[in-house]
C-alpha cells in the first residue's frame, strides 16, 4: 500500500522539500500542497520509470549533491571573475567532447545536469551512441584538464553510486 502511494520515495521527499523552499513558509496550506505534489507527481510519472535503478548508496549520493553545490558556489565566483576582470581576447571558450563511461540513463542525465548547473559550462548535446557529451565551456585554456576534472570529479562518483 505504501509503495503504491509513494512509488518513488526519494522523489517525493525532494518534491516536498522543494515546494516548502519555494513558498518560503511552513504553514498548514503549504504543507498540504507539498504533500499533494509529493504524492501525485510520483504516482503519475511512475509508469514512465519502469526500470528505474535502485538508489542504494544514499550517503554517497548526498555527498555528491553537497559536492555539486560547493562546486556551483566556486564556479559562480570564477565566472564573475572572468566576466568582470578578463579581457574578451583572453577568454578561451570552446566546445569539448567528453567521452563518458556511464551506462544508466539516470546517471548520464545527472552528469549532464551537473555540468549545466555549474556556471561556466553547459551540456549541449549527446552523441547518438550515448557515449559522448558535447559541452561548451566559457573559459577552458586547457580543455584536457576540464575533461579530466569532469570525469574524475563527477563521472567517477556517479559510476560508484549508480553502477
UniProtKB/TrEMBL annotation:
Membrane topology according to the record: Multi-pass membrane protein
Subcellular locations according to the entry: Cell membrane
Transmembrane regions listed in the UniProt entry: 6-24, 31-49, 61-84
Q: Which residues form a coiled coil?
A: none
Cellular component, GO annotation: plasma membrane
The terms under GO molecular function for this entry are: monoatomic cation transmembrane transporter activity
InterPro entries in UniProt: Cation_antiport_E
Keywords, ordered alphabetically: Cell membrane, Membrane, Transmembrane, Transmembrane helix
Q: Which family does it belong to?
A: Belongs to the CPA3 antiporters (TC 2.A.63) subunit E family.
Q: What is this protein called?
A: Na+/H+ antiporter subunit E
Amino acid at each position: 500500500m505504501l509503495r503504491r502511494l509513494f512509488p518513488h520515495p526519494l522523489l517525493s521527499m525532494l518534491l516536498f522539500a522543494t515546494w516548502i523552499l519555494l513558498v518560503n513558509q511552513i504553514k498548514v496550506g503549504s504543507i498540504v500542497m507539498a504533500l499533494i505534489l509529493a504524492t501525485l507527481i510520483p504516482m503519475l510519472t511512475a509508469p514512465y520509470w519502469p526500470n528505474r535503478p535502485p538508489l542504494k548508496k544514499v550517503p554517497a549520493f548526498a555527498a555528491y549533491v553537497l559536492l555539486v553545490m560547493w562546486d556551483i558556489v566556486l564556479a559562480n565566483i570564477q565566472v564573475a571573475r572572468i566576466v568582470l576582470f578578463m579581457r574578451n581576447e583572453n577568454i578561451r571558450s570552446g566546445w569539448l567532447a567528453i567521452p563518458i563511461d556511464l551506462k544508466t540513463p539516470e546517471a548520464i542525465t545527472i552528469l549532464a545536469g551537473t555540468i549545466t548547473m555549474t556556471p561556466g559550462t553547459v551540456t549541449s548535446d549527446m552523441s547518438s551512441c550515448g557515449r559522448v557529451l558535447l559541452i561548451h565551456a566559457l573559459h577552458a585554456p586547457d580543455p584536457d584538464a576540464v575533461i579530466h576534472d569532469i570525469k574524475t570529479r563527477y563521472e567517477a562518483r556517479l559510476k560508484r553510486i549508480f553502477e
